[in-house]
Amino acid sequence: MRYPPALLPMIQTAMSLPPIIQPASPRGQDPLPQPHADAQSFSQALSEKIVATIEAAGGWIPFSEFMALALYAPGLGYYSGGAHKFGVAGDFVTGPEMTPLFGRTLANTIAPILSASHPVLTEAGAGTGKLAGDLLQALEAMGQLPERYDILELSAELAERQRQHLLATVPHLIGRIHWLSSLPDSIEGVLVGNEVLDAMPVELVRWQDGHGQRLGVRVETVDDGIRFITTPGETSQALAERIRALAEQYQWPDDYTTEIPEAGPAWVTTLAQRLKQGALLLIDYGFPRHEFYHHERTGGTLMCHYRHRAHPDPFYWPGLQDITAHVDFTAIAEAGFDAGLEVTGYCTQAGWLMDAGLLDLLAAQQPADYTQADARWVRTQHAVQTLLSPAEMGEFFKVIMLTKGLPDSLRVPGFIRSDRSHTL
Fold first, then answer.
1. How confident is the model at residue 210 (pLDDT cuts 50, 70, 90)?
2. What is the mean pLDDT of the chain?
3. What's the confidence (pLDDT) of residue 223?
4. pLDDT at res. 366
5. According to the model, what pLDDT value does residue 275 have?
6. Is residue 100 a contact partner of residue 403, using CB atoms and an 8 Å limit?
7. How far is CA 384 from CA 94, 245, 416, in A?
8. What b-and-e string marks burial along 41-75, b requiring 16 or more CB atoms within 10 Å of the CB?
9. What's the pLDDT score for residue 137?
10. Which residues contact residue 424 at a Cβ distance below 8 angstroms, ignoring those fewer than 6 apart?
């Protein structure tokens, strides 16, 4: 059945959600803010595309395909369209947006790797360009300026924002910066990915009545139009066996819903195959596998971000919100190792930042006279506390380093005293 555009709904949290997606906040939470008319039209266009895709597939698509369309459909997806994503005016704030000390600390980790491999730095998904600018300034001050800074960016809108930011902050270095729309055939030096893995499509699965199910999306007709709903669909034998193995290993209860991230490990495998010498540094929120699939995590980790509010409805205004899942860092480590990389370091963000010298950088900015402390210093202190606090980003975020062809004697700040690779 084809649905005329007039029937396409504006998906809202007031609509009932399938019970497999647990609410992220207690009842009584204030409703999410409504987007303006232009944004609603933008979302409707993407909804029409998703509906057409579902129709062409026979009425059902796996959740991973819905997530890929919602985030990356050309010109319409959350990351490929024009939605304002980062910072106070966007939907979420990343570490580099909080304080330049994040980038300066990361530079301490990167510099010795560039010296031991090749002076090329690649950033996957550079956001507003803030981290790129901070890194280039810090590495220049250290005498470790890379010959090239490549930015892998799929969104033309974001690439232009990055270009404008870097022209304003490091105009003398703009000749070293290059934008790529696809992975290069070979990678040397360091590739950094900050909050990239969490936005890669995942398989949504459920363990129920002793069977594994692949979950997906279909369209349901309602009085005032249509809506997307989550339902089980065709599950391959290989995926069903994988779900069963996880369920038995981690003793999942009945009606256990979770994600199996396949795109992230596949991406790491591709990076590993192209890395000639150097390191992959990936920063994101997530867990080792035994925590990711803990039997008490019955609703999985899928989460959406809209105007600094986290909620569980992936169908709320498609294209206007981020859809994420935590990272299974064991899967990332396995993918890298199987493709020939060495798992050189893994730790919490707090452990990495302190090991790499964040507190020393903070102390260097401390005013001699506290009576002269300005609002900027107060904001910097607050940002550092957020980055390090176990209750905020300090334990929630992890950092993993995968390397190839580096000297065994190389000591990389960030992982000298804080490494927890054994927990993977």
1. very high
2. 89
3. 75
4. 83
5. 98
6. no
7. 12, 41, 21
8. ebbbbbbebbbeebeeeeeebbbbbbbbbbbbbee
9. 98
10. 288, 289, 329, 330, 333, 343, 346
Type of residue found at 33: P
Say what the pLDDT of residue 92 is.
60
User: Hey, what amino acid is at 60?
Assistant: W
DSSP 252: P
pLDDT in tens, 212-253: 999 999 999 877 778 899 999 999 999 999 999 999 999 999
By 3-state DSSP, what share of the chain in percent is helix, strand and coil, each rounded to 5? Answer: 40, 25, 35
Q: How far apart are CA 177 and CA 159, in angstroms?
A: 11
Paired residues of 213 in beta bridges: 206
- CA 403 to CA 271: how far, in whole Å? 11
Determine phi and psi for 23, rounding to 5 degrees: -65, 145
Which pLDDT does position 14 carry in this prediction?
29
What token pair was written down for 264?
Answer: 């992230």
Q: Which residue type does 299 have? A: G
Give 275's strand partners.
Answer: 187
Output DSSP code: residue 144. Answer: -
pTM of the model: 0.89
> Tell me, what amino acid is at 84?
H
Query: Which residues in 182-328 belong to E strands, given as ranges?
Result: 187-194, 203-208, 211-222, 225-233, 256-260, 275-287, 303-306, 309-311, 322-324, 327-328
Which amino acid, residue 363? A
Collect all residues with Cβ–Cβ distance below 8 Å to 172 and sequence separation of at least 6: none
Q: Which of 333, 347, 237 is nearest to 289 (CA)?
A: 333
- Virtual torsion, Cα 73, 76, 82, 88, nearest 10 deg: -80
Rg of the chain over CA atoms, in angstroms? 22
d(CA 270, CA 227): 36
Percent of the chain whose predicted confidence (pLDDT) is above 70: 89
Q: What whole-number distance in Å separates Cα of residue 219 and Cα of residue 199? A: 24
Sign of CA dihedral 89, 202, 286, 282: negative
